[in-house]
Amino acid sequence: MLDALITSKTRLKLLIKFFVSAKNTGYLRGIAEEFDESTNAVRKELNLLTDAGFLEKAQAQRKILYQANTQHPLFNPLQRLVHSFLGIDQVIDQVLERAGDVDRVVLTGAYAKGQESDSVDIVILGDNLNSAYLLQLAEKTSPLIKKKVTVSFVMPQQAGHIILYQKAS
């Protein structure tokens, strides 16, 4: 759906990263490593999204930190679109509430590469996770979003992922 509208895979990944949660931040080199993309490709898209007002940037030590501009008039519609694209619009808050001590939720697989897919692959990392609940929730969510939801609790070795949630330190 979105990949037909937004043809740049890097831009789509950036929109997912920053609009799935307004708290997500990133800097050029870190995002390039996270996406397994060149810094030039990421820089170009960050500049385009910043110039359009979708992202804000701030100096943090020697790095420029990017974050979604929550004051942009299209922030809420774009965030809803990203949530709908991922099929997680109904699930995120409920999961974090009952899942245990979640440190990080990471999107892997095709969606992390900016591609449409029949499955949503999610890695949940943390302490004292309620894995039975999370696996049951994934099973119940699959028919609702018409996509197979796969949850794992170990970060795969494959490159390319998008951090959907990270506990503030």
Automatic annotation (TrEMBL):
Protein name (Swiss-Prot/TrEMBL): ArsR family transcriptional regulator
Gene3D superfamilies in UniProt: Beta Polymerase, domain 2 (3.30.460.10), Winged helix-like DNA-binding domain superfamily/Winged helix DNA-binding domain (1.10.10.10)
InterPro entries found in the cross-reference section: NT_sf, WH-like_DNA-bd_sf, WH_DNA-bd_sf
